[in-house]
Structure formats: C-alpha cells, structure tokens
Amino acid sequence: MSADGASPDGRAHGAGADDGRWVGRSIRAVEHRRHLTGTGAFVDDLQRPGLRHLAFVRSPHPAARIADIDTDEARATPGVEAVLTAHDLGDTAPLIPALARDDFVPVEMPLLARDRVRHAGEPVAMVVAATPHAAEDGAERVRVTYEEETAVASLEAALADDAPAVHDEAPGNVLLDARHADDDVEPDFEGAAAVVEATFRTGRVTAVPMEGRACLAEWDRREDRAILYTSTQVPHIVRTAVAGILKLPERRLRVIAPDVGGGFGQKCVVAREEALTLIAARAVGRPVKWVEDRQENLTAGFQGHDQRYDVRAAFDEQGRLLAIDADIVCDVGAYSNHPFTCGVEPLMAAAELFNAYRGSRYRARGRAVATHRPPMAPYRGVSRPQIVLVVERLLQKAARELDLDPVEIRRRNLIPDDAFPYATPSGLTIDPGSYREALDRCAAALGYEALRERQRAEREAGRLMGIGFACFAERTGYGSQVFSQRKMTMTPGYETAWVRMDPSAGVTVAIGTSGHGQQHRTTLAQIAADELGLDPGRIEVIQGDTDATPYGWGTFASRSTVVGGGSTKLAAIRLAERLKRIGAHMLEAAPEDLELRGGRVVVRGAPGHEVALEDVARLAHLEVHRLPEDIEPGLDAHASFDPPGTFSNATHGAVVRLDPETGAVTIERYVVVEDCGVMINPAVVEGQVRGGVAQGIAAALYEEVVHADDGQPQTTNLMDYLVPTAREIPAVEIEHLETPSAFSETGAKGMGEGGTMGAPACIATAVADAVAHLGIEIDALPITPEWLLQALEAARPAQRGAA
Amino acid sequence: MKPAPFDYHRVDTVEDALERLGELGDDAKVLAGGQSLVPMMNFRIVRPPALVDITRVPDLKYVARDDGTLRIGALALHREIEHADDDLLGGFGVLKAAAPLVGHFPIRARGTFGGSVAHGDPASEWCMLTMLLDGEIVARGPDGERVIPAADFFLGFFTTALEPGEILTEVRLADPPDGAAIEEFARRHGDFAIVAAAAAVDVEDGACTRARVVVGGVDEVPLRVEAAEEVLAGSDLGAEAIEEAAQAAARAVEPGSDIHGSAEYRKKLTAVLLRRALTRAVGR
Amino acid sequence: MSDVHLIRVVVNGEPREAAVEARRTLADVLRHDLGYTGTHVGCEHGICGACTVLVDGAPTRACLMFGVQADDCEIETVEGLADGDELNALQEAFSAHHGLQCGFCTPGFLMLATALLRENPSPSDAEIRDAMASNLCRCTGYQGILEAVRAAADGR
User: Measured over all CA atoms, what is the biggest interatomic distance in chain B, rounded to whole angstroms?
Assistant: First the structure.
C-alpha cells in the first residue's frame, strides 16, 4: 500500500483525491518522523536535574512467607540513597480490583509484599540510587529471609483437591466462578448426529512490547502537584487509581504517556510500580525513574491466555452446530489486575464462545483460578484467540466425523447475510458483516480446490501439508452500556473529544485515547479533516496527557477508531457548525447553504462567494466585537460518543508444511480477508493485521511462559521466550471487504486484535489438517516440533526415518 | 540488567595482556567480541572484577594459510570467515558454509572465532568444527606458548583447558577432509542450535578411509561419536551406511533435557541431522 | 563510581568526550552521557537489536559493548541519518512502506539496514530477510520493514 500526498516532512498536504476526502487514504503517518530520526521521547529518554533511579528487589520464590528484610548492607552500598519496604510507603489505600458480582472474590494486590509473596518476581523492596547500576547493586544486597511454601504452579495444580490456597479468601483457588449460560442442552446432545468432545489448552504467553514498563515521577513543589510519566495505554485510569492509592486529590496528579513503545494490553492495567515510583520520589525529594528490564518484563510483568476448555458440541447430520457445553478455566495468576480484574478472561470467553457461528443452545461456566504466577492482564485478543481456536477445531472435528469438507461445514454455520442483527446463543448481538463472503474469498485466494488436489498428491509421496482456516467476529468499539454488564468498579466505554480552532485556523483535537503505535495522530486528524474541509496537516491531535485531554479511557479493546473517532467526528461537526454560523454572518448567507472546503467557508453553488477560515478564526478570537450578539467568542467544541459496539469480521487461511523428521512447521502461505467497515487509513489497518497475525503465529508455534512444577520461571530471557523474527513470520496477503458499521459515526469498525484472534486457530487447524489422517489431534498450543514429532512417530512407527 | 562493577584494562599486545592478567589474578577475564561474555555480565551470572580488552591487538586478527595448515587468529571475526576467499580456505570450505549459522549479521560483525572457541559452548559451530577437524588451539600464558589438541581442549559446559592467565591466540586446522558439512536445528533462525551434527569424511576409491562425526547439544562438550565413525569407516558412504551411522549416533548419545528439547527429542534430532550432514558431506 | 575512564568518540561526525564508569554499556553512554536517546534499549542481552548502532562502520549491539571500548571509535546512530530536515532514502522508505508503528525498534532496524545496504547494495529478498531477522519487532509483523529495505535498495 503506497502512501500518497506526503511531503518530505511527513505531513500530509496537497489536494489529495478527487473528492477531497481524507478518510480512506493511506496518508503518511505524522508520528513517523520522530521515530525515524530518533527524536521520540520514551520514558527512559527523559532527563531531569537530580534524577534518581529505582530498582526493585523481587522475590525469587513463587510462594513464601517473608520472615525478615535486612536493608543495612543495601543502604551502605555506594550510590544508594534509600531503601524502602512495605512499611515505608506512608499512608496508602489498598489496591483491590473488584467486580460487583457474588461469584467474584476480590483480593488485595499489595504494592510491596508485606508478609508473603505469591509469585516469583513479586516486588518486596525498592532501592533508590544515583544510577541504575548502583540501584541494582543495592537491590542485590537487600537480605530477605523467606520461608518457602509449596507453590501452586499451574491451572491443574490450582484445582487439585489438596492444593494450597494462594489466597485465604479464595477456597479452592477460585477467584471467579460464573455460570454464564445454562440452557438445557441435553436434548441437543441426545439427538445429535455427531457429538464432539475435547479438551483444549493454550499456554501462557506474554505481550513483550519492545519497550517494557517505565515510570518517571516528580513532585513539583512550586505547584504542589505530582507528575508521573509512564509507559501506559491508559493515562486517566492510572491517574484515578494512583491518586486513590496515594490518597492524593486527583487534580494534583498529572499523568503523561509520552511515546510508548507498544503495549498490547500489558500496559492497559495499573502497575504497582507506577504508584511505587511516585512514593519513592516523594520519599527522596527528587525525581525518580524506573525502567523495567527485559528479565523483569518476562518474569514479573502481566501475562495471559493460559486457559483450558472442556467442551462438548452437538451437530446435526448437515453439520450444523446445535449446542455447546463448555467448562472454561483460566489461570489468572496471583492477583487481579486493575481495572479489568481477573474476571475479564473467563467472562469474555464465556460471553463470546459461539463467535461467528450459529447455534441454538449454550451452557457455559467460566472460572478464574489463582496460581503462584504473575497476574493476568488483557493481552491482545483476550480469550478470543482461545475461543476461536475451540470453535474452529470443533467444526473441524465434526467435519471429519460427518465426512464434510471443512470449508463447507464452516459455510453452513457462519452467520448468513440475511440473519443480521444476529443474536448469539451466548447473548451478544452481532451487526452486519461479510462472514460468508470472507470465507469464500479466502478459500478462492488460496486456491482451495487445487490445494486439496496437491495435498492428496503430497500425502501419497509421504509429505505432510495442511490447510487451515479461522473465521471470527471481533467485538469492538463498545461503550459504557456493555462495560457496565461486567460490573467493574468504574465503567469505561465512552470517549470525549475537544476540537478547537485557534486564531490562525489551526486545529487541535484533544482526546483521552492513548496511541502507542496505532497512528491515532494521523487517523483522527483524517476524520476531523473531512468535517472541517482542512488538510490533516493543519490538525494536531493531543493524547496521553491528563492535563490536556478530557477524561477518557485510553487505548485497548479495539476501541479507539470507533469510540475516539466517533467523538472526534461529532466534535468536529459541532465546530464546523460554529464556523458556518460565523461564516454565514460574514457572507450574509444561511448556514445551511454553506460548506467547508479547502480551508474556506463557501456558499454551495456560488463560486467565489467564500471566506477563508483564517478570517473566520480571527473574527471569532480577536475581533469579537464584530460578532453578532448570539454568537459567543472562541471556537471550541466538544462531543462524547458512547456506542453499543460493532463487530468486524475476518477469515484467515493458511497452508503449512510439516517436517516429519524434526516436527518443524513452516507456513507457506497466509491469507487474511478482513472487513472492518470503512477504513480510515488502509495502511494502518494492514499494519495492525500483520502485527496481530505475527503475535498469533507466535502463540501457535513459538511462545510459552513456562514455570516449573515448583513455580520457578523457566523463560526468563529472549533466548528462552521465543519471539519470532522476520524469518518465522510469512508475508501476509490481505484482502479487504467493507461492510460499514451503522453504530460508529464514521462507518469504521475496530480491528486491532483480529490478527491475534485468528492466527492461532488458523495455524492449529492447518496443522491438524495435515495430520488428521494419522489420527493426530491438535488441541493444545503451542505446537512444538518435539510434541509434533512424537505424535507423528506414535501414529506411524512403520514410517519412522523415511525421507 | 546492569553488570556488577569491574576494572577495565585495554592492551594492544599479547605480552601486555598476559602481564595484566598475571597482575589481576585468576578471576579477571579476557574481553574479545563480547557477544557471549557481556550478556552474562549484564545478567550478573558472571562478575569478573576486571576485564582485559584485547580487541585492539592487531597481531591476533588474521586468517592465513601456511602450506596446508589454516591458521585462524583469535580475533578473526565471524564475518571474516563468512567472506573469506575460497582459495584461502581450501578444503576447509565447511567453515564458510557454517558461518551464516553463527548468530546474526551484527553478531558476526563483532564476535570472534577465538572468543567462541574459548567460550566453549558445546553447540556452537566453531567449537564443533574445531573438534571435528582435529584442530589445535594455541594458547599463550606466563610460561610461554602451548598447543592443545581439540580433543583435550573442551572439558565441560563453558569450560576449556585454558588456564587463568592464558590467552587463546590461534586455532590451527591441518589436513582438510574430502568432504564436510554441518547441520543444525533451532526453533528460530539464528538461535543456538538445540542439536547440531557435523561430519567430515575422506574417501579413496569409493570407500571411506576416515570419518569424523561431532554432535553438539547432547553433551557438555562437542561430542565425537565413535560409534557412528566406526560404521562409516570402510563403507561406501551410501544411503544405508549413512542411515546406520545416524542411528548409531542416536543410540550412543546421552543428552540432557531442558525446555528446548528433551533427551529423547535430542536423540532423534541427532539421527536426522547427522544423516543430513553426511549426505551433504558426501556430496549427494 | 568505580573505575572511570575518559573516552573520546566521534558520533555522527561530531567529536565528543565523556567520563564513564567502565561498566556502562555503549548504549548507556550514548543515551545518557552523550544525549543520543534515539538508540533504544530493549533487552540488554543482545537478542532484540533495538540498540543497534554502527561502530567504525560495523553493525553493533550497543548493549553488548562497554562505552569505554568505544574510545577513538566512529559511531553512527539514527540521529545521523537525516540531512537536517530531509530524511534519507531509507528513512523515507520506512515511512512510505509503514515499516514502523510504535517506533521503539525503528532506530535499530534503520542502522541494521544501513549496514546491510553499505555492504551489499543489491541484496536479494532472501538476504534482506536474513539480515532483518537479526532484530525483533512486535508491532509490524516485519512485512513493512522488508518492503522498505527492498525499496531503498532498489532506489525507489
């Protein structure tokens, strides 16, 4: 996708396309220049006079009582200025993420562990020093006396009858036990032509943003305010939470997300270290910076997707899905995250399990179980990679049992075009999309029929090739009504945009979304530009500063384009109306006869009868005595948007080849046909697809956070936790469909998580397709070469060693 | 992940390096390319109180030929092997073929052949090939120079026969084989191999006169597998002999297990990779 | 601070000097002692390549080299690529082909690609892919990066 109309400084300019509209064009991202020239400002790039550095002492044990903490030697370390433990934090309010549900057990997440630790990596003390090196020197000299206890190191161990309790308040280690649906499914199973029963398992993964967490905290004595720079996706959520923890009036805390090097959900929750860095800065009376190192990020940072599904599905003789009965268990680690809580994974899983496929009845139980492992945060996809895997594999198994083509069984079950709005058995309402068309086009793009032929020939020659698909609905852009159903302690969902024009007719859009690679500063400008008849280069988007933006929710859950874009559009429309009112006065015309085009207010159908926006802006700010009495000075507008949500859809297809000697899987082709409604900037959409698919492939074949049976982390560096390189990730072929959303002001739908949602299922079904004839089932991720080789050998010992 | 404090010394001759190491004591370490040492220092897995930086000793940077012997200076970069003249390497072309497997492009631009051999990772390409080709390691210490055969050099995981105060200055390879190849398996491109197999064969009148087989990732050292060599010696090096040798190697090795591969898997990979290496070495 | 050394380096053509503790890596020194924060730190164990710079022309992981080792060296960082306000062809290509999103890995990839294209001005697609596989990116899925380097090599 090539860019157009961009000047060397990266700003959009020029007349552009024939219709003069900016939405829909892949203009150059405004954000690029700083990153290409190394002039970005990530938290660790920030310097302050007198800056000190913070290091954490973290528990090496997954479960232990703290008997004693001796800080004498640490304090005596050259360069160390302070060592703080839980007793040195001052008056703080406890952090207890909660859901207002009877089946939820709230537990406190201590800032620094007090009398016990519940996961390896839990912070126990903190050291402030002149350099990060000295801080680390000090940290290793803090002598903590631990009394080790038996650790609960896995989902299975947590549910065992004799399992120790991670939290006394949670017997059986269950933090949430939700009966999401309880239809009477037995008649469907009794009458079914095929019943598929299986247990699916996905391994724990972690987001690995290239920039880990980082905070810089300073207390402004003159203003009596604190400023926290933090690598976050949710500045206002952090402000409200951290102010609450520190018992600081919220107006005296400013949170700034400068440039943020990726988040993927790991940074859409509050980190203890955010509050702790502020406390450390207050304690030493100097600005303090903490930069998470990669080892901390991999071992102590928020993780996710560690889930098990015990599922039964009933099908009729046509392969139509009748009912699903699911028992979903998520290993959520030692604590709930704030604000989404540990309930977010099991609740989303249970709420969306049918996903893009029709069915009638549903029974589902979703549990969050605690273990002595780092806590879960909503990592990109949030249970949807898992449910898509489950339902795709169920269909694949049913197809085999009923001797149906795998594409055909999907076709028969996908939501048809005439069924919208479609009410799912799990209680969602899906708005129009292109589910069947996406599948058909994906199959066509792959050359499905020819591939099946090739597969037959390859199989005869002893080679293993597989074709896989994943069709899914991605829930995006939903507002407070939907969030309220979760019963969080605060209800996110809406966004507010302030759109303002200055005396020189330049525009700023201030909004509470918080981009970290999504190019919001470009896409939101494109949206506003269309309403204001301006070049996006004249529109500045301001995010990530709680002093400069309206209260908002940040960027996660594929929401920013729909909710942020919607509020931006509405506010821009209001500003446009104001401009037209003033223009009408200047042109002696009726506002309804006016248009904003090319930086001017023009009378429709009367060329030459126009006024420049600069003149309107000048009047509105600097010569208000010439305004009519009923028009106030200034050019500010704001609007909020709180939509019900909208579903994008996609079909992923892949061809894989298996090496029968090593078990390695190679991806030969990967195709995505996606429909996210109106695309604001197609290049941005494609970037999100590719990045998401890469993370999804990683979860299918490479990445897993491993803890030994005793709870010791085994994947503590990037040699052990296998983030794929450009050699492992194929070129993704992308086709676009467009079903505009009726529920977003721009017709756009969110799509940021689709790549991660589809890829694991697509790869799993492809590998399964390659080996189904050998009786091998692919029901667990990641698929490692070792596991696959073992399965191949067990299935056909006579062919061992064949080339 | 900042290293523990240390004192830094830079030298530009081998003599100075030896003198400085002598003064600093047994715990001081030699710093060459740093691609293996510095990560371990950043993790604080190793904490040498002093480093002697030899990267600017010009005398150690060469790849040269003395009659039939290939002499690789300790500070020859991986990329120098990667881009070496074929005539210079002569019958040791397997080194050039293996070079792209060594880490990544930037690693090869700074990492050194000698540093890799001195580091002693049993799955590293240079350690394996030095073992395979019966290399000799030249070390200089306070008591002068000595030559250590590869078979006596690798003692354990990251443990070599180098004494404290000694510096590896050169690796010598004499007597090039008729054919040699190395095959490895890793989860990602550029990773350390889970298992690697290297084979060198000499052939006369269609029969194998000598076979050497080294497997990495199955032992604490790059492992010569005599069981496989015995199968190959005297054979026609055909597919059957190769397969038998591969299976013999798989039976002979006793690998450990870790999250990247169980013992059982490593044995299977041994057979697969050795078969592939032999097939290439023989030129089929 | 223990064992401090005075180093003289040339960074992007500009002579600089600093007094640095021996254990500070070149990444630490460039970023915090000399103020070139464009080079980023992603792992500190030489895997991710975010810290890639050129040292005497060679692509180097700045987290695997101590600043004191750079005495008398010529270092090129991302800040030296543009000519004033004008992006160079490689930077333009990265923008045009959307080879970046959050931007954190970008300087490392730019310096890596710079080293590749200097050594091999006409690389094949496979050579580009092999070289770019040296570094990690979490946002782009790599395709935009590969297309950018291809375009820059082709002079587009």
Answer: 61
